[in-house]
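On clarity, I found the account of how folds are encoded harder to follow than it need be. For illustration, here is how one protein appears when written out as sequence plus structure tokens:

:::
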Amino acid sequence: MSRLGVAVAACLIAVVGCGGAGAPSSAPTARPTPVVTPDPHLDTPALADDVFRALSLGGLTITANNAVSGAGDEPVKRINATFSGWPLAVEQYSSNAALNKVTKGWKDGDPPGRGEPPVSISGMNILVIWGPTRTNHKPKRPDARKAEAVQELVDVLDPLLSPLRARSNVPLVLSATTAAASTAPSQASEASPEP
């Protein structure tokens, strides 16, 4: 055999000897990438526009009518809309303390009084009002369809603005976070000095 033949034979023996015996190794399994769940809770003070946008993104069919700025008065902004055939307002106050002045006499679970809307929900510096109002009249009670609609409204608002406080003439189911916060004394509703 010539030198070239010996070299080719040696290479073939080396290739066959190296590759033929072992099973192919499996590819390393990639570790799953952790998924970060975004916190939907809004920063305080929350903006009425962000709340209104979140209601629409939450699957609620809401028709905007207009928006009014407070021109230095409270609320600083009010978005008027229609939800499930009743008027809906999203009011933005300058701070939690400013909203607390408006809702000062509220006791969770109390029904609304004469001239008040059937449903009022507050969280952080936002007040959401739903339903028709008539001066010196008891609030109209939502029918079964509207009672379901207002619970859907609460379900979207709760993760954004919790803890929530509500006055309603229909029962509302608030989250465990909201319920725990409403029964425990909290400094969270007190305003901290604005920077």
Helices lie at 3-19, 48-57, 96-102, 144-161, 176-183. The longest strand covers residues 62-69. DSSP finds five helices and six strands in the chain. Residues 144 and 170 are 10 Å apart (CA to CA).
